[in-house]
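Session log. Operator J.P. requested a structure for one protein chain; no other inputs attached. Running the standard single-chain path with token output.
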Amino acid sequence: MNIRLEETKDYREVENLTREAFWNVYRPGCTEHYVLNQFRTNPDFIPELDFVMEEGDGEHQSPGKIIGHVMFSKAEITLNDGTPYPSWTFGPISIHPDYKRKGCGLKLLKYALEAAKEMGIGLLQMEGNIEFYKHAGFDLASKMNIHYHAEPRDSEVPYFLAQELIPGYWGNREGTYCPPKGYFVADENPEAFEAYEATFPKKEKLRLPGQLEYEE
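Structure written below.
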């Protein structure tokens, strides 16, 4: 596999990959591809940490189709005294369904985390499955006294994770995290999202067990 920075020519292919990766996973259909589409012009977007994974190794084999992608963003934690404290997040991270459970996602993520550390990024938090992300060094954010904006402060939120890339960056602080505003763009602009979604081939939206909005 070959990992490189995303280029302008990759945008549509990567957005389609993201759509395929998230379709019917957390909700009927998905919105992650639209978040990505809009976030590239967001001032919080970090182009130096916008990576794609291709088939082939880039040396002995010619790179093929894009099978993975991850992007990073600036973020912020509000300390208990109201002071903003710089932090970062990442996602969506996408792996083509044909390549899931083959180690590709972990390889892409570890590569990106090392690049983020080299850039001086000290702290990451995100929403995800601890059973996967623990293999990349993440743990429950509550253990670091980082609270999630949508949950009670004393909750041990199982899907809210964090990792200190630079030892000592967070220290003994305590605060509350809210995802960057750009992550809510599809909910805030539903008509624009539907117009964007209409440019892709139709796919069946299904309500499935395990989705965030699933009800028995």
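Operator note: The first helix runs from residue 11 to 22.
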